[in-house]
Amino acid sequence: MIPAAFEYVRAGSVEHAMELLAADEEAKLLAGGHSLIPLMKLRFARPTTLIDIGRLSELSYIRRQDDHVAIGALTRHHDLANSAVLQQDCPIVADAASQIGDPQVRHMGTIGGSVAHADPASDLPTVLVALQATFVIQTAGGSERSVAAGAFFHGLFTADLAPTEVLTEIRVPLMSGGWSFMKFTRRAQDWALVGVAAVAGSGGVTIALANMGQTPIRASAVEQRLAAGDVPAVAALVADEGTAPPSDSFGDAGYRRELAKVLVNRAVTEALA
Amino acid sequence: MTQVSVTVNGDPRSADVEPRTLLVYLIRDELKLTGTNVGCDTSSCGSCTVLLDGESVKSCTLLAMQADGRAVTTIEGLAEGEVLHPLQDAFHRNHGLQCGFCTPGMLMAAASFLQENPAPTEDEVREALEGNLCRCTGYENIVKSVVDAASRGAR
Q1: Cα angle at A215 between A213 and A221, to 5 degrees?
Q2: Tell me, what's the ipTM?
Q3: Stated pTM of the model
């Protein structure tokens, strides 16, 4: 499978990338390419210009700041998984990153690419919603805005990111409580049939689900039941409330609903252990 | 057309390619190194695994331009002349291949992994090869080969 023809340009800076984006409304950014290139090979995506930002090393970093860890958008999954800073201060990100795809994919795929791609079956978007992370976006005209992970994902492959904007940083809070990331797959490197991220903190447990709808979804009903004193096994019974899981060859929607209940119980139990 | 320059197995090579050319087709069609196979063509099977600056990647899911100016190692670059790489030797001794189609990818994935973890457990080897499929299902001997190579100091 060969992608449709496009013009290839290597961006020298974020500003340069934004100029190139403004010049062609059918342009796309290329980071690691491990979501985009498969779509281009299937010709589901046919950008006319591909702007390669993959070599902007200034966007590859993991730094502890005051009350959060700042992660550059071009940080690879491999680097997230092996980061001592994340293992110490936000271990769920390192753990989830270590389970994405396979080693070869983790050598190329980036956190910013995964977030901007907005695939509801992806691991990191789900974890970032559970963490209540913040995304930093450079906008046309040189200004910057930030958006909460929970408000960023609008639909299937659709997010609060304009065609001329560039996602540059992901900010995750310092974790102090328990956590769990679980995904159920048929085969080792598959996408999650259902994935669950649970993060326990002073404000209770926050839970997000992968592949249970058009976006990563907060399991708000479970969170409320836990806050009201229900044990995980009881609270998890409403894990599918507000979801709209897909049906495919790996499992139908009903199966995913049941799977979500089982996994949420396990994940919350582990997070609170 | 655009020019792409890569150092392949230590040799600087250049070719004129369309920007949409995938790395694996640069390697196979332009540079005529056909040891790297295309299997699934969907970044699942790992047959096309090569090293990019020493790390395993699936060359069917990279543009040749992403490798421009970087070092690529293919299966042809693993041996030192006539002397097999310790991983190749271990696959030979442990019957780590049956039909052989997945073998170049298995070897490159294993070579990248042993750089990171020179003394892995069997379980760690299995996880490290999760991106490589063997349709002969010869996993037992593949894993045994990698563990054996590591125990003999392969890197």
Answers
A1: 70
A2: 0.97
A3: 0.97
